[in-house]
Amino acid sequence: MASQEILREEPSRGSFINDPRIRSLFFQTLVVVLLFSSIWWIVHNVIENLQRLHIASGFGFLRSRAGFDISDTPIAYTSDSTYFRALVVGLLNTIIVAVAGIVLATIVGFTIGIGRLSQNWLIRKICTVYVEIFRNIPPLLVIFFWYSGVLAVLPPPRESIHLPFGSFLNQRGFYLPRAVWGDGSWLIGVALLLAIAMAWFVAHRARQRQKATGQQFPVFWTSLALIVGLPVLAFLLGGMPLTFDFPKQSTFNLTGGFWIKPEFLSLLLALSFYTAAFIAEIVRAGIRGVSKGQTEAAAALGLRSGPILRLVVIPQAMRIVIPPLTSQYLNLTKNSSLAIAIGYPDLTATAGTVLNQTGQAVEGVFIMMIAYLVLSLVTSLVMNIVNARMALVER
Amino acid sequence: MQEHDMSWVRTEMVLAQPAPPEERGAYAWVRKNLIGSVGDTILTVLGIAIVLWIVPQVINWAFINAQWSGPDRTVCTTAAQGGIQPDGWTGACWAFVNAKFGQFMFGTYPIEERWRPILVAILFVALLVPMLIPRVPRKGLNAVLLFVALPIVSFFLLIGGVFGLPYVETARWGGLLITLSLSFVGIAVSLPLGIVLALGRRSKMPIVKWLCIVFIEMVRGIPLITVLFFASVMLPLFLPEGVTFDKYLRALIGVSLFAAAYMAEVIRGGLQAIPKGQYEGADSLGLGYWQKMGLIVLPQALKLVIPGIVNTFIGMFKDTSLVLIISMFDLLGVVKQNFADANWATPQTARSGLIFAAFVFWLFCFGMSRYSMYTERRLDTGYKR
Prior knowledge:
The complex is a heterodimer of chains A (395) and B (385).
Chain A: H1 2-8, H2 20-53, H3 83-115, H4 121-135, H5 139-151, E1 161-163, E2 167-170, E3 173-176, E4 178-181, H6 186-213, H7 219-237, E5 242-245, E6 248-249, E7 254-255, E8 258-260, H8 262-288, H9 292-300, H10 305-335, H11 347-358, H12 361-390
Antiparallel strand pairs in A: 1-2, 2-3, 3-8, 4-5, 6-7
Chain B: H1 25-33, H2 38-64, H3 94-99, H4 101-106, H5 115-132, H6 139-159, H7 176-201, H8 206-221, H9 224-238, H10 247-273, H11 276-284, H12 289-304, H13 306-319, H14 331-337, H15 349-379
Helix pairs in contact in B: 5-6, 7-8, 7-10, 7-13, 8-10, 9-10, 10-12, 10-13, 11-12, 13-15, 14-15
């Protein structure tokens, strides 16, 4: 009994200064006090400065007339439109260049990355040189190189370089034929959608049959035939409702066709070639990260080199590749803000103009931050969904 | 049972036979590495075609046709463009780089004062080289000199205004001087700041932890240009009337904060890789928080993430080129600024200047990455998981 009495006694404590709980409480209170007093000081200064400089605050300016022109407008925009519309145009331009860059960088990066693991010595070396060059120079320099080193010294429009399929390349950009869809072209779209749905259905049924009976079905070729064949059939049935508007050379310029401006082209090429070097390293690390035993076991099961790569190595490599690939996509999106250096009107450039015109720096920077944060979050979300599908399913 | 007749037993080992001729020498290497299969052969031919297409053009342009010195644009332009070269000539205009070299290095730093940045550079190299060679003793003293004494001495040397040195405002700095000084100070600030942020993010105190998470994730989610915008247009608004900040200092704050957020994530990776036993072992020895981190956890964690840290340094070195956007002229900025010089306006100017700048950036970044690979091998004590 006596021993229990002793146990119930308060354990002897050292000085309360040494109690971790009290210490942590103290430090956190200190941090909060410091934080709030500095925020209060900053807000106070900002308000005073804004009053002194006669700068309005709030987001009311978004509804007033912008008064500046934007060279690339994916949606209708004139200088009479509002600031809000100008910012939306900038955001759309950022998204366009980021998505195109991600697609191109992925293609180039995977090619180079696989090339670095090739059996072929020469290909391996060429890919290594590419990676070592582009990884070690600033992306802004690559943009300038394309813009003022390559595209700006192309011949003037009168001496345009003729490329296949009626396209032209000159100082003012890249001119492609534009597809003009005639009456009845909706049939092709419907056929494409139908084909995709059918291909999905075929794949689903084939998987079920393989699970039940072990019989295989050539899903890839069937799907390819459906997705290519049905739209072509619709195209022929609809009386071939497609014509091309070719760019034509006039005295001083090219008219018609689809015009890609040099700003967009150099930004796109620079971003994708720069990011491709990093993606190549990620892909290489991913493939090398799949243990050799996996390849050997697959070979022992009697698989040939094609199916080994497709069914065993790549699915496992993708698990290693996707998380760092996501951060490269995010980097590319953020690097697209370098567009401001060559005058492509992306979000940073238009927001910068708005900021200069209205003087409302706080709101301008705030809008930029929120927009990029949202873009980053959306990219992460999409890649996390892809990652979840690829991740190891533990049984 | 029959007796074995052991009339002959071999007493020495059979010598290894040489590999068959088709497995040896240059031919076997070529067959294995270049023409192993039909596909391989096609790739090799394609590769040779690419090399033959690019390399002679590059050599021709950069060395054979290049103009190394000259007074103005005439040496780098064809007759039709008003120069001395024959029609159809293309070659690098290194004469432009040669003529502007001083500007590329120091910007508009006064010519008679340029010995000051040169002296700083010599001091920097003299302190950095022994720091990088592992065998040289007295690393502690060296580090103090490099990271404490050198910045103070450089500050007074470069800015001046004391000891009879004329004052040079930072607006006159430029070129490689800005690139190197921004990245050196950025590195020196972002590493400790990154360590503090990473420790904060793993802290048990919820308020500290959430503050660090919000800061790191916000900075990582936005482009550096936005951070620089923030530093250049919003910092002045944050300060009381009359207090102004140097533009250079503002860029420095922006770059350092940006790099610190990335550094924190790299270091957090290292902290997470240290097994729990190490933390508990330190606790059971009675070490306090800072002793535990400083003596047990951080030395192991930092060693694990050296490649990541150096990658962040390289990224930061490359990112200093973005200060161009807030109209400061680092190496790339000065090169670009000089394209506008009518005296040197030729079709080759932009290309030559940019390739020179690319080469300088490349040298530094490649050097850093190779050194990190060397350190990684040297510190690999076999504990890595």
